[in-house]
Amino acid sequence: MGMRVAVAGASGYAGGELLRLIAGHPHFELAVATGQSQAGSPLGAVHPHLVTYADHVLAPTDPAALAEADLVFLALPHGESAAVAAQLPAHTKVVDLGADHRLIDPGAWTRYYPGPHAGTWTYGLPELPGQRAKIAESTRVAATGCYAVATILALAPLIAAGIASPDDVVVVASSGTSGAGKSPKAHLLGSEVMGDLSPYKVGAHQHVPEIKQASGARTLSFTPVLAPMPRGILSTVTAKPQSAAVDVRQALLDAYAGEHFVRVLPEGRWPHTAATFGSNACHLQAAVDVDSGRLIVVSAIDNLGKGAAGQAVQCANLMLGLPESAGLSANGVAP
Ligand SMILES: NC(=O)C1=CN([C@@H]2O[C@H](COP(=O)(O)OP(=O)(O)OC[C@H]3O[C@@H](n4cnc5c(N)ncnc54)[C@H](OP(=O)(O)O)[C@@H]3O)[C@@H](O)[C@H]2O)C=CC1
Ligand SMILES: CC(=O)N[C@@H](CCC(=O)OP(=O)(O)O)C(=O)O
Predict the structure, then answer these.
(1) Percentage of the residues of the chain whose pLDDT score is greater than 90
(2) Pocket residues: Cβ below 6 A from ligand 2
(3) What gap in Å lies between CA 231 and CA 332, rounded to an integer?
(4) Which residues form the Semialdehyde dehydrogenase NAD-binding domain (predicted)?
(5) Is the pLDDT of residue 245 over 80?
(6) Is 282 a catalytic residue?
(7) What ipTM is given for this predicted complex?
């Protein structure tokens, strides 16, 4: 007997990737898929790549219909998921891909997001120490932000091991355009994005408090860059060492030994976003800067995979008592 899952926001990019993963999941059955402006449309018209659900019609986002599922994925714009979640029965399992329930500090929420803070759910990053068990026993899980997961996986083990200073962490990260969602935006016009790299939200990105909360960083400068590709995040994290001789790569290997989706690459090979496309993988590599002595970790993910839908399915598997990697792959699509 399969688990019935629902996707709210199924017409968006993250929702579409959830549907793709659900279609290939050995234990999931799609109960409801909802949209807002596209409610009433068949999925074949919205996501032509998803032939499994071509005739499935998008429903409006009605909590009563979502509540019929064993687990609900919320892939709604920031600020919209809290109201929907509040109308779902307490026993209904929910994974929110939005930011509404990620932050513990209401002050941090108010600095970066509009509207009131909705409260805090279990943070959905299974590879953090102790987090896998917490996710498995939770009915409400807040999946990670896309830049946040790439950066936290690179940084958290170094701070936890006392290798990197939690102060003066510097992150520059590039994202593909699907990170900005599907609704039309002037800065995402194809003719302007192609052939261009552009920084945005400089010094004021909303993932800063999330990265600090989950990695233990105290002061962090984060600069996001929009890259002319549909998917992928490459995060370059640099931090001050806490001691004279440190083996950063070994610290990452120790932290992620036995992890199926996080891979520290062989020495001399650096992460490429293209190698993670379509997968739930995170690729890492580390070095020490010969001039400044700063520790450098580079991390690559697919923002719609480990950065969104893949991570959400990994959490859902844990919450439903299924094998953690069911329906997910560490292998990407290339070229
Ligand atoms: N894109 C990414 O890489 C990542 C996204 N996320 C998070 O996932 C969530 C969805 O993002 P993404 O898929 O990119 O966004 P999209 O803009 O592509 O999709 C948004 C979805 O929400 C629906 N929607 C829009 N407005 C409302 C509303 N007022 N009430 C209910 N539903 C509404 C849209 O329906 P319709 O199209 O029918 O109007 C669509 O299905 C966001 O919270 C985002 O932060 C998290 C990690 C990474
Ligand atoms: C390219 C681009 O615009 N990316 C978005 C990612 C935000 C997003 O969707 O973030 P969550 O992961 O928090 O849900 C941004 O930088 O705001």
Answers:
(1) 94
(2) 98-99, 145-146, 175, 179-180, 201, 224, 226
(3) 12
(4) 4-136
(5) no
(6) no
(7) 0.98
